[in-house]
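Following up on my earlier thread - several people asked me to post the actual chain instead of describing it. Fair enough. Here it is, all 397 residues.
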Amino acid sequence: MKISTGKGTISLPVLLAIWSVSAVTSLPGLAVSPILGDLNTIFPSASDLEIQMLTSLPSLLIIPFVLLSGKLSVGRDKLRILVVGLVIFLLSGIACLFIRNITALILVSCILGIGAGMVIPLSTGLVVAYFTGEYRVRQLGYSSSINNLTLVLATALSGYLANIDWHLSFLVYTLPAVSLVLSPFLHRQRSTPASDQMRNKTIDRPKLVRLMALYFFITYAALTITFYAAFLVDGYHLPKTFSGVLISLFFLAIMAPGLILDRIIGIFKGYTNVAAIAMIGAGLFCFGIFRDRGMLVVGALLAGFGYGLMQPLIYDKTAIIAPPRAATLALSFVMAVNYLAIMLCPFLIDTFTRLTALHGDRVPFLLNGMLTAGLALLAFRRRDDFTLGLDASYYKR
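Reply from S.P.:
Thanks for posting it. Predicted structure:
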């Protein structure tokens, strides 16, 4: 079976290898999430600082190694970097299964973050290397869907395994073994430069900075749901498990647009980004205004769908503004701000609430809803702009 790439064809095993790397990038931190509430019981002598380090330090280390991986990929063998990152990730995940003290778990989790950081930019870099034009856009959509579907399924699996034995939740970190098994197919079939990138000799830095800023903001705004839904649900006196339902629906909604990305672009055309940003804002307002369970579900789905629609488009635009040899480097900067937004989201919102003396469970949603509405209006007025708009090459094919 041969798959068209826009510049030839690749075999099915090569495509599966690319998809498997997309699945791996969603894993960092997942195994720790189900046992967060039990860490004081699992490690009775652990300090609050050690518990905070276990949850935040590995994520912090991902950012510099995402950038390092992108830098190393310029003019070097990307597949070798990928394999090294996968091996570090896999061996660290296996080691977590046998650890008995929190200091060792922190250390190994940090090493795992290093491996993950090396792999993350290559998950989209491989798509950009093998595909071009509408084929690349479609595959970036699939990559985003696979990433978020794996996130939902692996979260559920790690939670189930943690109920049996907390060590077993780390079994999800063995998924890189699949990518390692499939990686030889990438060696056998080399990529060729993308035709629409050949006009660039260097990365267009002003456009890259604007794409980074846009990605940072929409990630920060959309993740309000994952950070603050539990507080809102508790304030509304709804079952605590309902916040988990909302967050799961949010990530499932992020997955959905990637499966039909070309059809959605065909519907909204030049207004695609406007519609996506408006969906995120509308979703946040649903959380900030309504108490009804149904409207909270609608809010989670809208915000997730809007974010899932913009994510692959930002990746594709990043690929366009860089020459083939530097595409992974450009993507590494964009993907690094995603993790930066994840880390800073609660701190930014808490800082704002302290400065303005606004309090209440609805404030984060209403605040970011208004900011997102403003961005949607700006996107409407500047729909011909490279960053906020979508030119006809995306839908006149």
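The two ends are 25 Å apart (CA to CA). That should answer part of your original question.
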